[in-house]
Structures are given as C-alpha cells and as structure tokens.
Amino acid sequence: MAKNEQGDAVASRRTGLGAMLEAIPSPVILIDRSDMIVDVNVAFCALAGRDPTYWRCTPLAMHIPHDQYVRYSAEHAHVFATGDDMETEETVKAYDGTPRHVVTRRRRIDVEGDPLVLTILTDITALRDAEARARHLAFHDALTGLPNRAALSEQLAAALDAPARGQPALLLVDLYQFKDINEAFGECVGDALLRAFADRLAGAARGSDWVARTGGDTFALLIDDCPDAAAAEAACRRLLSLANLPLSGPAGAVKLALSIGCAWAEPGVRAEDLHRRAEFALYEAKQQPANEFRLFDAALAAEVQDRRTLEADLRDVVASGEQLDVHYQPVIGAGGNTVVGVEALARWHHPTRGTISPATFIPIAETSGLIVPLGELVLDRAAAMMARFPNVSLAVNLSPIQLRSPGFDRQVLAILARHGMHPGQLQLEVTESAVLAMDPCVEAGLARLRAAGVQLVLDDFGTGYSSLSHLHKLAIDRVKIDQSFVRDIGRSQDARAIIQAVLGIGQSLGLGVTAEGVEDETQQLFLRSFGCHEFQGYLFSRPLPAAEAGTFLETYAERAAA
To answer: pLDDT, tens digit, for every residue of 385-443?
Structure first.
C-alpha cells in the first residue's frame, strides 16, 4: 500500500478515536501490527515533544534505539497474538533529555476490525523520587549525611556475600568522652565537630572503604578487602592518627580522642555476628585510656562467651531472687559512736564460681538491661531491712540506665511505701558521669523524688569532671570523697589538697560530706581536722550480711542510748 493510501486508511481509523485519546490524561500511543504509529495524544507530545502529525504514520523504529525497539516489538507481538495485557515499569527520556519513570500498559483493541495496541504511559517519577528521598532518609544520618546503621547492615551483608581480595573488616570508632565536649561547649559545637570528624573520616577512607555513622558519637569504617587480622590492626592504627590533628569548630580548634573496636571476618561469619564482635571490641577499648583500639580475637571471644554465660546466669538470678544478697556497710558519725547510715551493696554468690565481684556483674547488668530489675530487687530488700531502723539512712547506688528508666521515680516511691520506709531515709548515689548524661526527663524525675524527701548524693566527687554546676544542677544534698584520695592521705599532698577543697565546698554550700575508704586512725584524724563528720570504711566495719548488719545497728543503737 502506498503511503497516501496508508495515510487515508489511518485517517479513517482515527474517526472517533481522537476524542477518546484526548480524554486520557496520560500519554497514549497507538501501534498497528507493523509497528507503525497510528496516533498519539497531546499528553504524549508533551512528554516526547513535537506535535501529533510528526508521529502519525511513522515507523516506531525510527524514533528509539534499536535494542529498545526490539523489546517493544516483541511485546507488541505478544499482545497481538495472545490478547493479554502487559505492564512494565521503565525509565524513558523526555524530549528535553530528563529521565522519567513510567509504568507502560499495553492492551489490544480492535478499531473497525483492525487490531491495534493501545499503549498508556503513567508517569510515576514523583512517586519514585519520593520513595528515593524516603529511602535516603531511612538509610542516612541527617546530621552528617553519612549512611546510618541500617545502611551499614545492608552493606556489611553484601560484602560478606561477595568478598573482594580479602574478607571484610569492621571498625567502630567512638569519640572518647564526647559528652563532656557537649557539656562544656553546647550541642551546636558538638554537632559541628561531629560533621567535621565525619568529613575527616570519609576523607581518610580509601575508594573501596565504606563510612557510616551508627550512633550519637560512634562511626564505622567497613573495609571490604582486608586480607588478614594484621591488616585490620594496621587500619586501626591509621585511624588513630586522625586524632593527632585538631578539628576546627565554632569554639575554635578541638583535639578529639578516639576509641576503636575492630572485628575481622573470617570466612563464614554472619553480618550480625561481625557487628556484635566489633561492638564487644569497642566496649573493651572504651575501658582503656584515650586513643586505644581493641581487635576481636580468641582471647576476647573467650571473654565474650564467659560474659554471655554470666549474663544468662544473672538473668536467672534476677528472675528468681536466689544467689543474690544485699550487704550493708555502716557510715559512722564524727564521734565514732553512732551509725548514721548504711550503704547497700549487692553480692552474688554463684553456685560454681563462688562470690562474683560487683565490678564484674554490674557492667554485665548495665549492658544487658538487667540493671533496672536488679536495682529494684536490691532496693526492695534493703528497704525491707532498713524500715526497722528509721533513724539510719539507706544509700543505694544508681546507674544512668536506671535513671533513664521510664517511671523510675514512681517505682522507688512505691517500694518505700510497700515497706513503710520514709522517703527522707533514702539516699540515692549518682556519679558525675551520670549527671553529665542526664536529660530533662531524668532531672524531672529526680526533682519529684527530692520533693518527696529523698536525698541525692554525688558519689566519687573529684574523680571526674567536677564542677559546682553539677551540685546546683540537681540540688545535691551530699557529696562523697572517693576512697582513692583517702587512701593517699599519708603520701600525696595533691590528695590532701583535694580533700580539703571538697570539704571546703561542702561547708560553703551547706552540703554533707562523707569520706569513703577510711582504713586507719591517721586518715580519720586528718579528715576530722578539716571538718569531715561522716566516715565509711574498714576501720569501722566491712560490708555486712543482713543479719550481721542488723545486730551491728542494734548494738550501736544500744550504745548511743546508754
């Protein structure tokens, strides 16, 4: 058929079609069996450019690349042969060259006995762009723009599935005591330093390395081609060198310190296990001085397994209440004849390991989340014991995790009420690091406890970042001089000077001061000479089991009455 005749035939087919095509808001194109374009609508021209007359009666092949035409032609043939609808999603180029995401739907229709393929293009670019933005937000850190923990998990799994020249190594980098910087300079400065460190870390990474921010002050470096553990160790040392150069921020140059935990993936390790190993290594590194790293190895693996076993045993202890005792160390008044208080101390008597030190099981309780029910169990038993001695205060130690536990203040008051112990008898001991980490919700809870009569004690005062602001921040009632200073009274002028300063602060602010770790008369005499009136230590008594503590308190009460 000549083109003029073909055009006349096409024109006749268009009778009644034009209105139908223009009624469809999406781009539409009609194709016949020979892949000739029969018609298009205005929306199609808005997408592809030109006017409808340019497209009509032209072969589809002249408008698109050959490989794309081959695919389209095969799809048209399938629709013509089977009558089945087809739907695909693809990216096409608009007339101005911009990519558009479209869903292409093809359907066979008959016009005056002639079969045609009606193709409708639905533009979903806005939807896909919104999905891409949402995915970016879900997998990237808003402050630094780096991938986040979720993205790291995906990338780590991919690296383990298809290792490159070597197995992956994961390095977790923590900014050492970064909370102190936030406390000193404010969050704006802290955020600026986090962004600056993120840029420095990304700049130090090699082309195949992968950098992420996994938490508040923790970053990750994934090396996907680490040949062995020695290479992973070398990477840790390379990262530590980043701490040698100060970072510029709104408060001027600040030199950061780092802690690094590293885990190298031997063949067969799972992504979640590798991440957990790196976290264990980082935890161990953070127990060391600044700018140290720890590599997960056989020794650390044994420690981890032992910790897991202890955690499982401790979980049983908290659930059953068995194997756990509360001991009480008396606090003696200045005259030496009165017991003014006791400190409750948890003791774990393991059936096979014997007595386990609190220095061992308390950190396990904190990292596992068991510290909250463990603390409630200790307070419950101690309140039941001390309700018998209303004139003797009860001090219990608090973890920052307990302080952040929802409803902590209500739980404390409920335990005291259950045993008939007056809130004014209770002293809650918090450390300076716990004060630094407090948020408004924690402060509000402690304020409610103080309003009920509970006293707040700042424990180990002078060992951290001591500041008078800490004393005012929570309206502290009492401070405790750390035993490390008391121990050095006889041999360190600095220790004596610090003790005098703490006692002076207490007297100036009207705070009570208790000295811990008093072991001999010389220490007691020095402390008393500078105005310390409460003492705790082995000079007076070791921590006592409940029965012995009860006898001890009764004896002192009788002595005071006489």
So the answer is: 999 999 999 999 998 889 888 899 999 999 999 999 999 999 999 887 677 667 788 88
With contact defined as beta carbons under 8 Å apart, do 43 and 18 qualify? no
Measure Cα distances from 307 to 81, 197, 278, 349, 521 in Å. Answer: 68, 33, 15, 16, 40
CB atoms within 10 A of CB 481: 28
**Mean pLDDT, rounded, of the chain:** 87
The Cα 173–Cα 427 span in angstroms is 37
In angstroms, what CA-CA distances link 193 with 176, 190, 475, 544, 555? 13, 5, 31, 49, 58
pLDDT of residue 328: 97
Per residue, what are the HEC states of 245-268?
A: CCEEECCEEECCCEEEEEEECCCC
- Kind of pairing between the strands at 393-397 and 339-350: parallel
- 384 is written with which tokens? 């039941």
Residue reference for tokens 């450390």: 431
The pTM of this model reads: 0.61
**pLDDT digits 0-9 by tens, 97-127:** 899 999 999 999 988 788 999 999 999 999 9
| Contact between residue 271 and residue 150 where contact means Cβ atoms under 8 Å apart | no
Task: Of 260, 277, 158, give the one whose Cα is nearest residue 219.
Answer: 260
E runs forming strands in 209-363? 210-213, 218-226, 247-249, 252-254, 258-264, 292-295, 324-333, 339-350, 354-356
Question: Alpha helices of 387-520 — where are they, by DSSP H?
Answer: 400-404, 408-419, 432-436, 440-452, 468-473, 483-487, 493-509
Tokens of 204: 């130090």
**Contact yes or no for 404/442 (Cβ under 8 A):** yes
Element at 140 (helix H, strand E): none
* Tokens at 344, concatenated: 């409750």
Contacts of 477 (CB under 8 A, 6+ apart): 427, 455, 456, 457, 511, 512
How far apart (Å, rounded) are the C-alpha atoms in residues 283 and 305? 15
Categorize the per-residue pLDDT at 3 as very low, low, confident or very high, splitting at 50, 70 and 90: very low
- The H or E element containing residue 379 is helix 371-386
Residue 531, token pair as written in the block: 């105005």
Copy the structure tokens of residue 4: 């003029």
Say how far apart CA 237 and CA 484 lie, in whole Å. Answer: 33
Q: What is the mean pLDDT of residues 454-464?
A: 78
- Chain mean position to CA 114: 65
Distance CA(57)–CA(211), nearest Å, equals 55
pLDDT of 448 > 90? The answer is: yes
